[in-house]
Amino acid sequence: MLARFFQSRVCHSFAVGPHRCLSSTKLVTPLPINRRKLLYRSKQTGFLELDLILGGWAEENLPKLSEIEVQEYEKLIHSEVPDLYSWLSGQQKPPEQVDGNIFRRIRESVLNGTVNKSKRND
Predict the structure, then answer these.
(1) Which domain holds residue 71?
(2) What is the pLDDT at residue 120?
(3) Helix (H, G, I), strand (E, B) or coil at 67
(4) Which of 1, 4, 46, 105 has its CA 20 to 30 A from that of 114?
(5) TM spans, by residue (predicted)?
(6) What are the phi and psi torsion angles at 36 (to 5°)?
């Protein structure tokens, strides 16, 4: 019975220590607070399509980004929502200050259909 508990989804948030959570397959270190805030903001833009695009991309990529890339993503995420969607979908050309490495990576995943669709209310 205890083995089933540790294999269940309930166990994903079961605390093991101050910096780790128990997962059914491995120990997972949570994201630093600034990246968690960015992940939340990515999933809660107020524009469903953008929530799915940015939330999915952020879930997959935020843990792997360098601090410089995180800063670039943070600047991007604070753009006006309708403009950001227009730029990412290719409807409008992005301004120079937005058209950086992170923006191109997100747009490429959108245009290729490889962006991981996020669950909106995680």
Answers:
(1) 33-112
(2) 53
(3) helix
(4) 46
(5) none
(6) -65, -40
**Is residue 5 in a domain?**
yes
Q: What's the chain's Rg over C-alpha atoms?
A: 17
Which phi and psi angles does 104 have, rounded to 5°?
-65, -35
Give percent above pLDDT 70 in the chain.
Answer: 72
Q: How many CA atoms lie within 13 A of 24 on its CB side?
A: 10
Closest alpha carbon to 38 in 8, 64, 70 = 70
**64 pLDDT higher than 60:** yes
CB-based burial, 68-88: b 16+ in 10 Å, e otherwise = ebeebbeebbebeeeebbebb
Whole-Å CA distances, 115 to 15, 17, 96, 108, 112 = 30, 32, 23, 9, 8
Same structural domain, 26 and 47: no
Q: Tell me, yes or no, whether 74 and 42 share the same domain.
A: yes
C-alpha span between 46 and 5 (Å, rounded): 36
Domain count for the chain, please give it: 2
Assess whether 53 and 106 both reside in one domain.
yes
